[in-house]
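Hey, resending since the last one bounced:
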Amino acid sequence: MVWSFVSVGAVVGLALYPLQLGYWVFLAIALWGVALYYPFPVTARIRQSVTIDRPAGQVFEFLARPANQPLWNPRVGACQPADVPPEVGQEWTFASKRRWRKQSRMMHRFSRLEPPRLVEITAAGRGMSVVSAYIVEDMGEQSRVLLDATVDGLPAVAACASSAIGWIYRSPDFRCLKRILEGAPL
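The structure tokens again:
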């Protein structure tokens, strides 16, 4: 909202003084602020994969337990409630890891389960929704896990930036998942 007023002020300044460079810079900054903070909803897609030295059934069982996610996903705290059964429609949240900032929680729910092949989780909140499909491919003693996530409702600039960053810098989540599943007995 503030950026909208700033943009209008910059346009008025340019109408009065069109040759002043400062007003052009002011307008550019204001438009950038509008693009960052206005929720022009855009969809971002994230795809990653990892090969794990475990059978598909064990990998599926680990991924289908929400309480395991804080072990390999550094962005989430403890699962609440802690004992969510892997059934379609079951809901949970994760505790915030940021104590200094109060944030609205996203409600997670199992939207599809196809043992031992697919765990699909839908999360909604904070003005966006995320559908994360963990597809487990059986390769004998190994399994390939493919994450296919779709994020709806991100501001346009944030969606572009996150897609570019995700393409260049791979998230450590799957490396942690691989290390936990291969290093510790299930």
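The chain has a mean pLDDT of 83.

Sorry for the duplicate.
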